[in-house]
Design goal:
Elements lengths: L18 E6 L3 E6 L14 E5 L13 E5 L4 E5 L1
């Protein structure tokens, strides 16, 4: 199982073969893990990935465990 590399910046294009883009706008992406990539925080497979460069974001009520990972300019929220 390949773990997402977040050293430097997270580059979604390196994982495009296994991540399906669900939504994207100027500062955020919401992706689905279709290749059992491992979470960079806990090492377990994750279901969905939210990547943002925005200073603030709001979420509904999480219904599953989640992990956070940070690069210099991005915040990654991974749901399990």
């Amino acid at each position: 199982m390949e773990q997402l590399d977040i050293s430097g910046e997270f580059d979604v294009h390196e994982y495009r073969h296994g991540l399906k883009l669900l939504r994207e706008d100027r500062e955020t992406m919401h992706l689905e893990n279709r290749d059992d990539f491992a979470c960079p925080a806990c090492g377990e497979p994750f279901e969905k990935l939210f990547v943002t460069e925005a200073r603030t974001s709001s979420f509904g009520k999480p219904t599953a465990p989640f992990c956070l990972a940070r690069t210099e300019s991005q915040l990654l929220l991974l749901t399990h």
